[in-house]
C-alpha cells in the first residue's frame, strides 16, 4: 500500500511528504479519493487483460446445429459453419466446442473411422468437392480469434434404428464382438481394452494432425440407464467382459470395475494429449450432479453409479484442464439448484483446475427468459477468479431467443476477453512482439508488428488509450498492422502483446504514437 501511495499519491499532492503518506492517515486518504481519485491503472500502465471462458457447443449429431441437414454441398456447409463462427465472434465469445465424432464416425479425414452421414447423407462418403471440415473449421475459427475444441463421444457407436446404413469400415462392422446393444443404442464396451485403445488412437490422431485448442468429452460414458417395457431396470450387457476380468484375477465389484474402466481411459487421454501438445486443453462436461446428497439438498440421477462417471475423481486427480458440469437448472429448484451445485463443484476443485458450468440456453424462449442465462453468467463471475461458461447450444444464439445474443454482445460481453490460461502447464510465454510506427501520406500513421525470435503467436492483444480510457482488441494472428487516419484516431498510447497457444501472454511493448517513441513499460 505504501509503495502505491508513493507512486500514485505523493507525486500528485506535493504538500504531503513521503513520511506523512507512509503514516497512512485514513482521513487524508479518504479526502484524496473524493477530490482527486487516482485510477486503478495510471495513464502509463495498461489494464490487466480480461480473462473469461465464453464457449458454445455446436452439435452435429442428428444435424442439430451443423450442418443444417445432410447432403449439402461443400460450399453450403462452409457458409453455414463460417456464419456460426461469425456469430460467435460478434457476440464476443472466444471458444467453439464442435462435435466431430458423434457415433464412431468422423467430420474429418480419419484413418480409422468413416465419414459421418450427417455430412453427405451416406456414411463413408466424403464431402464433394472434397475438403476436410475439421481443418476448415480450425482455420475459420482461428481467423476470427476463436478457440476450436474438438468434441468427441468416446463409446457411443450408433443407433439401432438408424436410417443410415453402416459403411464397411465402421467400428461396428470391423469389431462386432466389442459392440453391446443397449436400449435404442449400440455401444462400444468400455470394459474392453481394444475399445480403450481405439479411443486413445482417435484422440492421438486428432491432436497430432490438427491445430486444435482443445479436446472435449461430454456426459456419455456408460449409457444412461434405461428400462424394459415392464419398467424394470435394463442392465448393460457386459457380463461376459466382466467375467473375463474376474478370470484374469480382477477383484473389483462390477460397479467399481465399470468406474475403473472409465477412470483409466480419462487418465490415459489426459496423459496422451499432454505428451503430444501440452498446450491443448482437455475438458469434460459431465452430468451436473455427481451424486444425490452432494450437497445434502441435491436429488437426481446418480452419475457415479448410473453411468459410472466419477467426475470428482478426475477433477481431484488433475486429469482435466477444465470441467464444465452441465448445470441445466435454475435457482428456483432446490433439489437441483444452480448456485448450490456450482458452489459444490468449486469446493471439490483441490487441483485448482477451471470450473466453467454448462448452461441450458436452449430453454430460453421456451420455459426460461434470457435473464436466467444472464443471471447464471454473472453468478459464475462472482464465484470464480477466472470465470467462464459454456452455452448449450449455438441454436439459441442463432435464433436470438428473447434477444439473448444481443444482450450478451451489448451488455454481458461488450468487450472481448482471452480464455484463462493453464498455470499448471509449464509453458514459456511467447516473446514480446516487435513494432514499427511509420508516418504515411494524408496524415496517416501505420503501425506494424511482428513476432520475435521465430515465434508463431496464436493471437495478439492490442490495447489503445485515448486520454485516460483504454480499449482492448483481441486480434487473430494474421492481422499484423493498423492504420490510423487523422490526429483524432491516433491513440496516446498503445500496448501490444503476443498470445501463445493455451492463452499464454507475452510481456507488452508500449508505444506512444504521437511522438513515435517506443519503450517497454
Sheet/helix structural class: alpha/beta
The biggest sheet amounts to: 9 strands, parallel
Number of domains: 3
Task: Report strand %.
Answer: 15-25%
Please tell me what the overall shape is. Answer: globular
Multimeric status of the protein: single chain
pLDDT averaged residue by residue: 90
CATH topology of the largest domain: TIM Barrel
Unreliable spans are: 1-42, 517-521
CATH structural class of the largest domain: Alpha Beta
Question: How far is it from the N-terminal to the C-terminal residue, by CA?
Answer: 21 Å
> What CATH architecture label of the largest domain applies?
Alpha-Beta Barrel
Helical fraction equals: 25-40%
Write down how many β-strands occur, each being a DSSP E stretch of 2 or more residues: 22
Blueprint of the fold:
Blueprint (H helix, E strand, L loop, with lengths): L1 H8 L8 H6 L2 H10 L17 E6 L15 H17 L4 E7 L15 H4 L12 H10 L4 E6 L3 E4 L11 H4 L4 E4 L2 E4 L4 H17 L4 E4 L8 E2 L5 E2 L4 H9 L6 H23 L4 E4 L18 H4 L4 H7 L4 E2 L14 H10 L6 E2 L2 E2 L10 H14 L4 E4 L2 H6 L4 H9 L21 E7 L3 E7 L8 E8 L2 E8 L4 E5 H4 L3 E7 L9 E4 L4 E3 L2
Parallel strand pairs: 1-2, 1-14, 2-3, 3-7, 7-10, 10-11, 11-12, 13-14
Antiparallel strand pairs: 4-6, 5-6, 8-9, 15-16, 16-19, 17-18, 17-20, 20-21, 21-22
Helix pairs in contact: 4-6, 8-10, 13-14, 14-16
Give an account of the 3D structure.
- The protein is α/β, with parallel strands linked by helices.
- The protein folds into three domains: 2-35, no CATH class; 53-412, Glycosidases (TIM Barrel), CATH 3.20.20.80; 434-519, Sandwich (Immunoglobulin-like), CATH 2.60.40.
- 31% of the residues lie in helices and 20% in strands.
- It has 17 helices and 22 strands.
- The chain has helices at residues 2-9, 18-23, 26-35, 74-90, 117-120, 133-142, 171-174, 193-209, 239-247, 254-276, 303-306, 311-317, 338-347, 370-383, 394-399, 404-412, 486-489; strands at residues 53-58, 95-101, 147-152, 156-159, 179-182, 185-188, 214-217, 226-227, 233-234, 281-284, 322-323, 354-355, 358-359, 388-391, 434-440, 444-450, 459-466, 469-476, 481-485, 493-499, 509-512, 517-519.
- A hairpin with a 4-residue loop joins strand 21 and strand 22.
- Helix 13 packs parallel to helix 14 (370-383).
- The protein is globular.
- The model is unreliable at 1-42 and 517-521 (pLDDT under 50).
Amino acid at each position: 500500500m505504501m509503495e502505491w501511495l508513493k507512486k500514485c499519491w505523493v507525486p500528485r499532492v506535493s504538500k504531503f511528504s513521503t513520511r506523512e503518506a507512509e503514516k497512512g492517515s485514513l482521513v487524508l486518504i479518504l479526502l484524496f479519493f473524493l477530490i482527486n481519485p487516482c485510477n486503478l491503472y495510471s495513464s502509463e500502465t495498461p489494464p490487466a487483460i480480461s480473462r473469461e471462458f465464453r464457449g458454445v457447443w455446436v452439435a452435429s449429431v442428428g444435424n442439430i446445429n451443423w450442418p443444417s441437414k445432410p447432403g449439402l454441398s461443400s460450399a453450403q456447409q462452409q457458409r453455414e459453419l463460417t456464419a456460426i463462427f461469425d456469430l460467435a465472434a460478434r457476440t464476443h465469445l472466444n471458444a467453439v466446442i464442435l462435435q466431430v465424432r458423434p457415433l464412431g464416425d468422423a467430420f474429418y479425414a480419419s484413418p480409422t473411422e468413416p465419414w459421418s452421414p450427417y455430412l453427405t447423407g451416406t456414411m463413408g462418403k466424403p464431402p464433394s468437392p472434397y475438403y476436410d471440415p475439421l481443418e476448415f473449421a480450425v482455420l475459420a475459427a482461428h481467423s476470427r480469434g476463436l478457440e476450436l475444441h474438438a468434441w468427441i463421444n468416446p463409446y457411443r457407436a450408433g443407433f439401432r434404428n438408424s436410417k443410415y446404413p453402416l459403411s464397411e469400415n465402421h467400428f461396428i462392422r470391423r469389431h462386432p464382438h466389442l459392440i453391446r446393444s443397449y436400449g435404442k443404442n449400440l455401444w462400444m464396451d468400455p470394459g474392453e481394452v481394444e475399445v480403450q485403445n481405439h479411443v486413445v488412437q482417435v484422440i492421438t490422431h486428432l491432436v497430432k494432425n490438427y491445430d486444435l485448442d482443445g479436446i472435449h468429452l461430454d456426459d456419455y460414458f456408460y449409457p444412461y440407464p434405461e428400462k424394459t417395457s415392464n419398467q424394470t431396470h435394463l442392465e448393460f450387457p457386459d457380463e461376459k467382459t466382466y467375467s473375463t476380468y474376474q478370470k484374469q484375477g480382477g477383484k473389483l465389484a462390477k460397479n467399481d470395475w465399470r468406474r475403473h474402466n472409465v477412470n483409466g481411459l480419462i487418465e490415459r487421454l489426459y496423459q496422451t494429449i499432454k505428451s503430444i501438445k501440452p498446450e491443448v486443453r482437455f475438458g469434460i462436461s459431465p452430468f451436473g450432479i455427481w451424486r444425490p446428497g452432494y450437497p445434502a439438498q441435491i436429488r437426481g440421477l446418480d452419475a457415479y453409479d448410473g453411468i459410472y462417471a466419477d467426475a470428482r475423481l478426475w477433477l481431484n486427480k488433475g486429469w482435466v484442464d477444465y470441467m464444465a458440469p452441465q448445470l441445466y437448472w435454475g435457482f428456483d429448484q432446490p433439489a437441483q439448484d444452480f448456485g448450490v451445485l456450482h458452489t459444490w463443484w468449486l469446493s471439490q476443485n483441490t487441483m485448482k483446475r477451471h470450473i466453467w458450468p454448462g448452461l441450458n440456453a436452449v430453454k430460453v424462449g421456451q420455459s426460461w427468459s434470457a435473464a436466467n442465462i444472464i443471471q447464471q453468467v454473472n453468478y459464475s463471475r462472482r464465484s470464480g477468479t477466472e470465470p467462464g461458461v459454456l452455452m448449450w447450444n449455438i441454436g439459441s444464439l442463432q435464433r436470438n431467443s428473447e434477444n439473448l445474443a444481443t444482450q450478451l454482445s451489448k451488455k454481458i460481453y461488450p468487450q472481448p476477453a482471452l480464455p484463462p490460461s493453464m498455470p499448471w502447464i509449464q509453458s514459456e510465454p511467447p516473446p514480446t512482439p516487435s513494432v514499427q510506427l511509420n508516418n504515411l501520406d494524408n496524415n496517416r500513421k501505420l503501425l506494424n508488428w511482428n513476432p520475435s525470435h521465430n515465434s508463431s503467436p496464436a493471437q495478439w492483444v492490442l490495447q489503445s488509450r485515448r486520454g485516460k480510457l483504454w480499449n482492448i482488441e483481441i486480434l487473430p494472428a494474421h492481422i499484423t498492422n493498423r492504420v490510423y487516419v487523422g490526429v483524432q484516431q491516433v491513440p496516446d498510447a498503445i500496448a501490444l502483446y503476443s498470445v501463445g497457444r493455451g492463452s499464454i501472454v507475452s510481456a507488452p511493448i508500449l508505444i506512444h504514437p504521437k511522438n513515435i517513441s517506443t519503450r517497454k513499460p
